Amino acid sequence: MLSEKLLVSESKRRAHIFNNLDKYLRIIVDTVKMLDKDAEVYLFGSVADGRYLLSSDIDILLVTEMPPGKVIAELWKSGITDPFEIHVITKNAYELYRRRAKLIRLTSSPQETQHS
Fold this sequence. Notes:
By secondary structure, this protein is α+β, with helices and mostly antiparallel strands. It is built from 5 helices and 5 strands, in the order H-H-E-H-E-H-E-H-E-E. It has one domain: Beta Polymerase, domain 2 (2-Layer Sandwich), CATH 3.30.460.10.
């Protein structure tokens, strides 16, 4: 009975995040840009491809020279946890991701979002 309640609660939480994804993506971009104004933020994976389920994770690629632990800790403080999967890389590793995945560049204002 308790496990069923936990599953229902988790399903509702994930549905809320997916239904309000723009809000959460804005929090991610704003938090990262506060730490590093030159950082780049991308959405990739099943959500970027439009083939996700509520059980999917939401893959976020951060291109920055900042230490990954610092960036992830700040995102956690901002409420960004599961189902977000944060990948922090340097500019040197960016090309590998660009060649292998559809990347959607995220900006603070939705009209500036770019597909690569």
